[in-house]
User: Fold this.
Amino acid sequence: MSERLYETLLRLYPAAHPRDEMLDVLLTAGRPAWREIPSLVLGGLRARCGGDQPLAVRWLYAARAAALLLLIFSAVGSAREVASTWLPLSTMQILVWVAVAVAVVSIIAGWRVPAALAGFATFAISAADGVDWRAVTAYSLAAVLLLIPGPPTPVRNPILLALPLVPLDAVALGTEPLYLLGLAVLAWAVVDERVALAVGLAFCVAFLQVIADLPGADARGVLILTGSRIAYVAAFLIVGAWAARRRARV
Amino acid sequence: MREPTYFILAALQDEPGHGYAIMSRVTALSGDRVRLATGTLYQALDRLTREALIEVVREEVVNGRARRHYALTPDGRSALQAEAARMAAAARVVLRPRVAGGAA
Assistant:
């Protein structure tokens, strides 16, 4: 019974992991399954999804992942607005999407220079077009994040490709499903804190969008919204940074 | 250094050991206080191997299953001794003989 259960759980680990040896230890130790299962599941998820980079590279990965989130989120947002005829389908918009596609592929592949150039192109073209200022703010932050030098760090994580598809409004943030999604990202930091760090970095753009979207006279409204956005950013960055530091400790 | 890491390195200071041997030695050395779950042990072994504090020195097949033997590297031995010295110095601050009722 235990042997089959352990064999099933050990499939969570990558094939290169010493699964056989772990099964041997599990059966020899003969401890109650409830004591072994949590660390076994956590270890498997970390081995498969958590990456094994040093602390500085984990932050670099998070910065590139944040750029990925911003690029996909803004391009999909523009596409939704074009589909609902809120935005015109222009040549400039198509060029922005092409630049986003190049940047996204480059980030996933870990090509730093093409990613930085395409990231800058998304910002330059969308700013020249001047139609969708929310997207311009997001592309500007993505372009800056992609300028950070460092070793190639391919960002291959299905979660980071799926997250930016969730419709989100920086001003009207805070529905229950979004809170639950945020909590899920925070909880996932136990396995891979780079997702929480990426979300925290990407959320920095919410300040710019909140300030741009509200009338200047409503200083109190801007203050409250900016304060709450700082709380979002802080929550993801603090939890992510704490988990990253803990993980880096021998 | 985390406590489980310290005891895992300490378990390897006299001779190499395989997973279950390390687990048993850690329990014995810590006076039954640190009882590593298998998942925790292998996460630590992975991390320590990556940091080059331990290495795999031998592999064998027992009962049809692979079994790797781990040993301290010179860096691992240095890190263990540095941590032990740090804790001993910290302990001396509290445990040194004192004159009753006044400064030592």
About this structure: The interface with chain B takes residues 17-18, 20-26, 28-29, 31, 35-36, 38-44, 46-47, 52, 249-250 of chain A (CB under 8 Å). The radius of gyration of chain A is 21 Å. Chain A has two domains: 2-49, 55-248.
